[in-house]
UniProtKB/TrEMBL annotation:
Pathway: Pyrimidine metabolism; UMP biosynthesis via de novo pathway; UMP from orotate: step 1/2
Ligand binding (orotate): T131, R159
Name of the protein in its database record: Orotate phosphoribosyltransferase
EC number of this enzyme: 2.4.2.10
Cofactor section: Mg(2+)
Catalytic activity: orotidine 5'-phosphate + diphosphate = orotate + 5-phospho-alpha-D-ribose 1-diphosphate
């Protein structure tokens, strides 16, 4: 598979997600809601074969947007942003990544956002999977407080629980996802 073969990358990533990331059984999500399955995308975004595919697929998903940095609330967003940074570098392009802490540091520079400055820059907020939209919304708010212009929110998998509509309504930005519940075989 070549770096430019995004259709093959997307198909292989979906295959790996179905094989390694979908766990069936009753679970309590971070939102407090219960579900009959769990999509553990850290098994994918931190996997040596899948992580590069994540970067390719997420860049393809957002290729019509203009942004200079990508990031979101730690921990779900971190490997997604890093994969995108590496995919951009492999394509000969520059993309910075940033990490939004859940709370500001009480020591050092006391920053809530780590990485290259995003002040005055167009940024994309990312997440691995989205249920309530709370994590991306927190990241959007932090990025705006830091002086960035958020162009959109993008996630690998959408749980079809209204998060996209909530993000669009509350943050006023477009919401995109690479894979739907139907594609993951969960709907």
């Amino acid at each position: 598979m070549t770096v430019t073969d995004t259709a093959a990358a997307r198909a292989r990533l979906l295959e790996i997600i179905k094989e390694k990331a979908i766990v069936h059984g009753r679970v309590t999500l971070s939102s407090g809601k219960e579900a009959d399955y769990y999509v553990d995308l850290r098994r994918i975004s931190l996997d040596g074969e899948a992580a590069p595919l994540v970067g390719l697929v997420m860049r393809e998903l957002t290729k019509d947007l203009t942004y200079a940095a990508v990031g979101g609330l730690t921990l779900g967003a971190d490997p997604v942003a890093t994969s995108m940074l590496h995919a951009a570098a492999a394509a000969g392009e520059r993309l910075d990544a940033f990490v939004v802490r859940k709370a500001g540091k009480a020591h050092g520079l006391q920053q809530r956002i780590e990485g290259p400055s995003i002040k005055g820059r167009r940024v994309l907020v990312v997440e691995d999977t989205t249920t309530t939209g709370a994590s991306p919304l927190a990241a959007v708010e932090a990025a705006r407080e830091d002086g960035a212009e958020v162009v959109a929110v993008a996630t690998i998998a959408d749980r079809a629980t209204g998060a996209g509509e909530k993000i669009t309504a509350e943050a006023g930005v477009e919401y995109r996802y690479a894979f739907s519940l139907e594609e993951l075989g969960l709907a």
